[in-house]
Amino acid sequence: MLKILTLVPVLAALASPALAASGLVEPSLKMQPGKAAAPRVAITLDACMGKTDFRILDTLVNEKIPATIFVTARWLAHNPQALAVMLSHPDLLELENHGENHIPAVDKPVSIYGIAAAGSTAAVEQEVEGGRLAVAAATGHQPQWFRGATAKYTASSIATINGLGERVAGYSVNGDGGSLLGAGMTAKHIASAKDGDVVIAHINQPTHEAGEGVVRGLLALKARGVIFTRLDDPAFNAPSN
Known about the structure:
Elements: E1 9-13, H1 17-22, E2 27-31, E3 40-47, H2 54-62, E4 67-71, H3 73-78, H4 80-87, E5 93-97, E6 111-112, E7 115-116, H5 121-139, E8 145-146, H6 155-163, E9 167-168, E10 173-174, H7 183-191, E11 198-202, H8 209-223, E12 227-229
Helix pairs in contact: 5-6, 7-8
C-alpha cells in the first residue's frame, strides 16, 4: 500500500501587474514536494458547460488515472452519460464544485475574458451554493473544493467562498490554456508537471485539439512513473509545520 506522505498545500495569489491593477487574484495550489520514490501530481479537469471529451474521460478510466473533476450545474444537467461513467468509478474520479452557471466568482462588476462576473457578494454566494446543491444531488456528497469560472477572484470573494465551507482550488500548471492551445503545446505543458504540481485542463471541449494533448500529456506522466492524486488526498489537509 502506498504510504501517504506529509505534504502541505500552498495557496498564494499570482500577482501579475494586470491582475493587481484590477484587484483580482489567481490562486496557486501546490503540494510541497515529498520524499516518495516517484513524483506526485494532482490532475484537475474543468467541466464548464457543453459536452464531454470522452478522449480524456476514457483515458482516465482505462489507464486508471485518478483525477478531480470540477463540474457546473449546467454541465451536470446535460451530460448524464458522462456523469454515470464518473460515478461508476469513485475510486478514480472525484467530483467538485465549478459553480452553478459558470460565472466568475468575483464580487464586483467586471468582465473577465469576456464573461461578466457575479458582481456582488450575494451573486457569488448563489454561484457557489447553486453548484454545491447540484454536485450534492448528483453525487450524494458535499463538495469540499470550489473553482470558479476563469479561476480568478477578489480577496473578499475568496473569503465568501471559504465562509460557505469550501476551499478555493488553484493550480500550478496551466495545461491547456483554457482548452485553446494546440495538442502539442498542451501535451508539453502537462508532461512538464513536477512533484507537487496541480494541473488544470478541461474535459468539456471534445472538438478542440487540446483534448488530444491532455491525453498525450497524461500518458507521458504515467510513463514517467508519476503517482496521480486527487484534491481529496489527505495530503491536501495536512497541517502546516
